[in-house]
Every structure is written in structure tokens, then in C-alpha cells.
Design a protein that fits this description.
Helix content is 33%, strand content 24%. It contains 8 helices and 12 strands. Helix 5 runs antiparallel to helix 6 and helix 7 packs antiparallel against helix 8.
């Protein structure tokens, strides 16, 4: 156990990767530490929460967050991004069309307020949000120094812009799944979900991580490949998708 990480409320997954389950929506934030750079996976639900995460990440790693990856574009996973000035932001291709428009940001603000984020926090965070500069259409390798992280556009499924983050080595591979996988409740299929393609997205996750990887859901406890396969089967049955 790494006491510093545990005392700060983080779970150390490998020598390079950890995560934190945030309060209220139980949203997962990932942290990948390279020798030269630091990647944060999903920066929280507001600028206020993002600022707290930034301070924690800097204390844990001794340097600033240089890269951010959005697993998808829902408010609880993106609205903290403005707290990380200067970071290079990555997302699935097409996500810029959602986050980079006034209409898209207003939709995020409204969704955040409906789910309980205070109006002031939601409005300010949405107004400051910038679309990802780097758009992943297939796969993109980030060299962080001592570790190469793979960003993979595995969707659509839970949303139209699902991105997975694969961290090799460290004893076991780690796959940050976003809300393609949920452990703490049934996967949510909102208005932007593509249900009939969701099982195929999970097939791509399993091919990416393999049998022995740690799979980190967007919400809930870390799971294994067997859990992902079972959730894939349940989604296929729920949405009437042939095996």
C-alpha cells in the first residue's frame, strides 16, 4: 500500500497508475504518472472539483498535470477541465463538436443542474470548458516517459464519443473504461447512447486489455475481464443484440 495515495483518498493500481472515486456521483478519476509527464483521466464535475484534483495530483506526483483524456463528454467527467490550464486535452473524434459549441455547453450545464450540481458551479464550469484539442479516431500513443499510454476510440456505446485509456506494464495492465463499464449500478443508456453498438465496444475493450487486466469502470469498484464479459452479455440481451 502507498500510504500517501491512500491518505489522499486515492487507490494505487500499479506503480504508474491510480484512481480516485469522487463523491456524489461516484465518478472515477484516473492518474498515470510518467517520468516526464502526468496524465489525468476525466477531470471531475466542476472547476471547483478539478482544482481539488489538480492540487492532489501535484502533491502525489511532484509536478503538474500535463495531459487530460476525456473518456466521454458527460458533465461529471469533463466540467473540471478548466482547472488544468496548459494541459493537452484528448478526446474521441467528434467530441469537439459537443464541447466546443455554445449549445453543447448549455446542454452540459443543464444536465449538471438537473443532477444536482449547483447552478453557479455548473454555469461557470461550462462557460470555461474548452473542447479537446487532440481528437482520437483510432488509437493514439502518449509517451509520458517510462510508460506509453494508449488512447483508443472504442465507441460508440454509452455515448457517441467513448475513449478508453490503456496503461501497460506495472505488473498488470490497466484499462480506464469510462462509463462503457459500470460496477456500482446498471449501465446508463441516456439519449446520446448507441445501444446496439455497446456490446461491440466492450469486445474492443476486452481485446485491448486481455484476460488479466484491471478494468476501471466510470463508476464503481475495479473489475476483471469476467465482469466485463458478463456486462457485455447483459447489455446484448437488454438491447436485443445478437451474440
Amino acid at each position: 500500500m502507498d500510504v500517501r495515495w491512500e491518505e489522499a483518498g486515492w487507490e494505487r493500481l500499479t506503480g504508474r497508475a491510480g484512481r480516485r472515486r469522487l463523491p456524489v456521483w461516484d465518478c472515477t478519476v484516473g492518474l498515470v504518472v510518467g517520468d516526464d509527464a502526468v496524465l489525468l483521466v476525466d477531470p471531475g464535475s466542476s472547476v471547483r472539483e478539478g482544482a481539488e484534483l489538480r492540487a492532489q495530483a501535484e502533491r502525489l506526483t511532484g509536478r503538474r498535470v500535463t495531459h487530460i483524456a476525456f473518456t466521454h463528454g458527460h458533465f461529471d467527467h469533463v466540467l473540471g477541465a478548466a482547472a488544468f490550464a496548459g494541459a493537452e486535452v484528448f478526446g474521441a473524434v467528434g467530441l469537439d463538436g459537443l464541447l466546443g459549441t455554445a449549445a453543447g455547453r448549455e446542454e452540459l450545464r443543464g444536465d449538471a443542474v438537473r443532477n444536482g450540481l449547483p447552478e453557479e458551479d455548473a454555469a461557470g464550469s461550462a462557460e470555461l470548458l474548452q473542447a479537446p484539442r487532440h481528437l482520437v479516431s483510432g488509437e493514439w500513443t502518449l509517451e509520458l516517459g517510462g510508460v506509453q499510454v494508449l488512447l483508443a476510440n472504442v465507441g460508440p456505446g454509452h455515448s457517441r464519443h467513448d475513449l478508453a485509456v490503456f496503461v501497460p506494464g506495472g505488473g498488470r495492465e490497466v484499462v480506464f473504461c469510462g462509463d462503457l463499464v459500470e460496477e456500482s449500478g446498471e449501465p446508463l443508456a441516456g439519449p446520446d447512447a448507441v445501444p446496439r453498438q455497446w456490446p461491440a465496444a466492450l469486445d474492443r475493450l476486452l481485446a485491448l486489455g486481455g484476460e488479466d487486466a484491471l478494468y476501471v469502470p466510470g463508476h464503481g469498484a475495479v473489475v476483471d475481464a469476467a465482469f466485463v464479459r458478463a456486462q457485455r452479455a447483459a447489455l446484448a440481451e437488454r438491447f436485443g443484440v445478437s451474440p
